[in-house]
Amino acid sequence: MSSGKVNVADWPKLDFTTFVVSLRQSAMVHLGDAPGPEGSSEQDLELAWQDIELLALLHEKTKGNLTGEEERILDEALDEMRERFEEVSSA
């Protein structure tokens, strides 16, 4: 760890799209489709389902309050992760 002072103001600003992409990536890791932080790919369907449910909750609670691009990204992430969960869980 660095002992230098951290200036979070210099970090990239987080937005809704970044949050959705982060949840999608987490679901992919838990589905075993992407490596986790340690570099290994292991399935955890319960955690994948929780990620997908968070996307669904966002979809429900933000309806009518998103830009067209944000809505498209959320819809695509939710549809893709639901479809992939069905494929993985029924294999």
Q: What does this protein structure show overall?
A:
By secondary structure, the chain is mainly alpha-helical. It has a domain at 15-27 and 47-91. Helices cover 59% and strands 0% of the residues. It has three helices and no strands. The chain has helices spanning 16-30, 45-61, 68-89. Helix 2 packs antiparallel against helix 3. The longest helix has 22 residues, at 68-89. The radius of gyration is 16 Å and the shape is flat. The termini are far apart. The model has no long low-confidence stretch (mean pLDDT 92).
Summary keywords:
91 residues; mainly alpha; 59% helix; 0% strand
How are the secondary structure elements laid out?
Elements: H1 16-30, H2 45-61, H3 68-89
Helix pairs in contact: 1-2, 1-3, 2-3
In short:
By secondary structure, this protein is mainly α. It contains three helices and no strands.
Number of strands: 0
Principal-axis shape equals: flat
Structural class: mainly alpha
Largest sheet: none
Q: What's the pLDDT, averaged over the residues?
A: 92
Strand content: under 5%
Q: Whole-number radius of gyration?
A: 16 Å
Q: Distance between the terminal alpha carbons, to the nearest Å?
A: 43 Å
